[in-house]
């Protein structure tokens, strides 16, 4: 059973627009020292269906940064066996200050699509299950974990994708359990992000000793994974 951090002693509940609310966090992340060559790599991890993509999109917009979705790096055959491809195509070029050339996976066609170029920007957000894995952690400037319970997250994902993908979700759940059993991310997260009925709260620090807390409103319904 996962442990949960103690509640921060204070939270601000002043209603703000999402991007305005995320500006303090964005400034904090942008001020971090580079972690991958000239790049500050910000990881957002959590269970499938926990809201990583939605939160990553909001945060990236506040940062003026691109997002690399790990769903574009994984494949049907390699749900979690993509670390070497990510290293060769993305991490090594960016670490050297060179553009990364990578091809996103097409989950419908079951093949890699046209190649894309990712410049060595000041901040890059990488989101997906496994963004905080041990192979990536040395390159991260900050690791954020979406603090949504596993059952809730998986229920959202199944509801979103429908019964036609039920078999895939059965396989995914087994693979995710095995991944986090061998290579957990949450114990190493610097920031925990929670979604409430009206927005997000986050606490920064180690999971056991949160240092600060903040609140952001977001009224667009259930998030994407």
Structure, briefly:
The chain has 225 residues and is of the alpha/beta class. The protein is built from five helices and eleven strands, in the order αβαβαββββββααβββ. A hairpin with a 4-residue loop joins strand 4 and strand 5 (111-112).
Query: What general form does the structure show?
Result: globular
Strand content: 15-25%
Q: Architecture, CATH level 2?
A: 3-Layer(aba) Sandwich
Give the count of structural domains: 1
CATH class placement: Alpha Beta
| Gyration radius over CA | 17 Å
How many helical elements? 5
Descriptive report:
Mean pLDDT is 82; it is low at 1-17 and 206-225. The radius of gyration is 17 Å and the shape is globular. It is of the alpha/beta class and 225 residues long. It has a single domain (18-217), classed as Rossmann fold (3-Layer(aba) Sandwich). The protein starts with 17 loop residues before the first helix and ends in an 8-residue tail after the last strand. The chain is 30% helix and 24% strand.
Give the topology.
Elements: H1 18-30, E1 40-45, H2 52-63, E2 67-69, H3 83-95, E3 100-102, E4 105-106, E5 111-112, E6 116-118, E7 123-127, E8 140-146, H4 150-161, H5 166-182, E9 191-195, E10 199-206, E11 209-217
Parallel strand pairs: 1-7, 1-8, 2-7, 8-9
Antiparallel strand pairs: 3-6, 4-5, 9-10, 10-11
